[in-house]
Amino acid sequence: MHPATPARVLLSEELTLMCKTKIQKDWRSTSFYDETYQNGHSSILLFNKVSDGSCKINVDANSGYNASCDSSKGEFNLTILSVGDQYHNRFIRCEVQFGNGTRSDKHSSANSTIYVRVLVSNVLLSNNTIIGDVTRDVNIKCKATSRPAAEISWVKINAEGISKDISLSSVSSILDGTTGYTVTSVLTYKYNIEDNMGQLYCRADNVISARNSSVAMLKIYYPPPIDPTIQQTPNRPVNAGERVVLACSVSGGHPLPALTWNCSGNITDRTSGRTVFHTVVFMSAKEDNGKICACLATHPVTSYRPVVSLKLDVNFLPDTLPVIDQVPTGAVDTNSSIMLKCTVKGGKPLAILTWNCTGNITTNTSEDTSFSIVEFSVTKHNHGMVCICLATHSIASYQHTARHIVNVIYPPDDNPYTEQAIPGPIDTGKSVTLKCTAVGGNPLASLSWDCAGITSNISTNTKSILSVEFTVDKNYNSKLCTCHATHPIKSYSPISKHELIVYYPPTKPSLTYSFDMPWLEGNITEIKCISVAGNPKSTFEWTSNEMRFTENKSMLTIGPLVGDDNGKAIKCLVKNDYTIRNRIILTSDLLYMDVEYSPEIKVEKSIVYAVEGYNKSIACFALGHPFPEVQWFLNDIARTESHLNVSFLQLKDIDRVVHHKKYKCRAVSKSPKYGLLKSELTIEIFVYYTPNITSLKAVSGNITPENDSTTLRCQVDSNPKANITWVFVSNQTELQSDYNVSDSNFTILTTSCQHYGTYQCQAINTVNGIMTSDIQQTELRVKCAPRIDHRQHDLLNRIAVEVNSPVNITLYLIAYPKPQMRWIFKNNEVNSTSISNGITNILKLYIPRLAANQFGEYILYVQNAAGSMIKYVTFIKKGKPISPSDVFVVCKITTASFHWKSEFNGGLTQYFHIQFWDKENNANRKTTENITDTGELTTLQYTLKNLQSNLAYRFRILSTNFYGTSSSNVVECKTDSEGKLCFSLIKTIIQNIVQHIHI
């Protein structure tokens, strides 16, 4: 049998087994037996001999097999299409029969056992994540199934990507199964810090195949390298009630350790990078002094359990406030000694005691008490002295004082003094309060008054005060009141006196005057105010129509009198301090003044503004005493009737002739005592009116020779003055503007034909808010010799025409006066038509068919009184253009720049080309694209690019139209890599030919 045992084959692949027999004529049959089919007792395949000696295939189990045979070679083949697990270690047997089918037939057989190979599959890890620490071993399993059995290796990759084979730390076991050998490898390994965040995988290899497992992530725990630390804030002994922050922190480890406090408070956790902070915040109390706060660190690595602690140092306030005791107690006599003791209990540290009193001071402490003693002798100056004991503490909020007042017996040092409760004079009928005061003494002095009234004891701790209150009248003025003082010390009995000052009012005043009324404007008069004085001295105040005078006299002098004084009410007011404070008004009866005066004239304005064509009413008011008669005059001629107090001047349909006229208003008062009183006032009328152009002319006449200076003048009558604008009507051009003027000049320094035309003067002003204007025009005619109007077109020296083609020329000429215009050909006048308008003259020449004998030179004659003009025009046949002239070229490294002049185009549109070639190779010529003509005798430019550097070129300009091409002379230029320039300039012979034609 081939292949012999073991017949190796991969699972699910086909296997062909060949039964090889001897080649004998008596071969009868060959059979195959499969152990997986009926345990190999029945054949699955039979090969029989047929009559021709060949073999015939008979398949008993026809599923899953193929067969072939060649009896001539003794080869019989069985193919298992897909070898399954059931074939492993199972045989295929072949039996061969030789003979005729009798008992004497010979039989032989052979076996081949199949070995089914299985690729490595199902490489599985027991864990996807490996959690461990650096202090202990961790187990993990890897399983793989295959045939033959695989060898399992282990690979570790640390966090830095470095691989390591750690298979030596593993143990493997093998289990045979129907699907192959299952190998189990157990890895027992202690990882280090660098392995954290690394990877682990296993690899199974059975020679015919290899496979890796999935990757397991390494999570390796390790403790911090150091113990935690505690930071206290504030970092000093704390005060009771102060906020304390204890921060426990530790760095390193994976994962970070957990921290806990044994002290209560507001606990917070935070992490910064690889450091964990565990903070407790609490308000310190007296009871916290000496307390120990501990921070415990825990970690998955159980060997890491450090504890750190901190002892609290808390300051706290004393239990009591300071207390002062005096020895001896009570009041003391002057020159005696006393002792004051200040005591405070409790506190950490003990309180610090200080005195503000001078003396012998001793300070001491006991276990829980601080005390300080001050001893000194007293005098009367020590009475009421306050001794203060100040207790302070390291806690700033504790700062308290104890006060002690020293009581010493002594008499007042000074005599009593008196004062008035409200200083100063007293108004009659008012009450007054007098106070008597004795300062100092212990006890205070006793006081009494000799003035009758209501007394009140209003003493203080340091002063003895007795007041008396009574009502005064003007009889109390200058009276004396006396205060008496007594004391237990009998030698002390002084007195003090006070003088009273009483204010009272003057009597009501009355007025008298020196001269009888009426009074006359310009005179002076006197008025007297009579009143009995009060206390203090009286003052006088005069008013006229409630307006005050500044004089403080009983006699008032008024004058010189004016008209406004008439009817004024005069009164006198008498006052002193008493009447002012008590708001008593003492005034005389009113005295009304009777003053006669000349009339006072009033008009709205001294200059009256009016508008032409409108009406105007002007009022003249006059006030006087007696009442005046009012009337208007012009040049001393009455224009209105006489009226009382007012007269109206009526101006109707006002004309500009009234402008600047002056009217006079006259007022007359008749006084029985003083005669006629007169006044006058003059006004001026100012009239606004629209513009009127009174003159518009050319100063030197409307016809002027060309090139002379001429001035146009416009004169305007208007009020206000006008803004004058000059406009050239012929082309609507604004020439000049003058503002706020009555005349304007527009001057042309040098006249030309184009100044011929109509000129307009426009005058504008604004009257009564409305813009008004006046416009006039005048014509200026400029004498000028004939010339072609180049604004239309030029007349060419040459005109190209086809034979028998029409000629139609329209020529615009400028000339004044109207010129004579003729075309002449061979001394004969050619028919033409003309139109003239001002300086514009249009001449038309039309020839229906220009015969061959009509080509040649035509002469144009134009003449007027100012001059003449002759033009020559040559009609030529259309042909090819004249060659370009003035050609020059500038060569650079790879470019050539051309300039040339365009000549006559032959009567048709022409185009230019630049032809260029290598000087050494005339055959290879190149030509540029079309270059458009810009007109005869214009200069054209063109830059030729992409030339070869350091090469000599030849160039020429070609001009082309319908009839042919003309060429300029050839010009040479060499390009250079160093930027050297080659200039070439030619003048062509054609230029001379053109000049000859012009001549």
TrEMBL record:
It is found in: Membrane. GO terms for biological process: cell-cell adhesion. InterPro entries: Cell_adhesion_signaling, FN3_dom, FN3_sf, Ig-like_dom, Ig-like_dom_sf, Ig-like_fold, Ig_sub, Ig_sub2. It holds the Pfam family Ig_3. Residues 880-978 form the Fibronectin type-III domain. SUPFAM superfamilies: Fibronectin type III, Immunoglobulin. GO terms for cellular component: cell-cell junction; plasma membrane. Residues 132-216, 228-309, 318-407, 416-496, 509-587, 599-684, 691-783 form the Ig-like domain. Signal peptide: none annotated. It is a single-pass type I membrane protein. Its main location: membrane. Keywords: Disulfide bond, Glycoprotein, Immunoglobulin domain, Membrane. It comes from the Eukaryota. GO terms for molecular function: cell adhesion molecule binding. This is Hemicentin-1-like. It comes from Mytilus galloprovincialis.
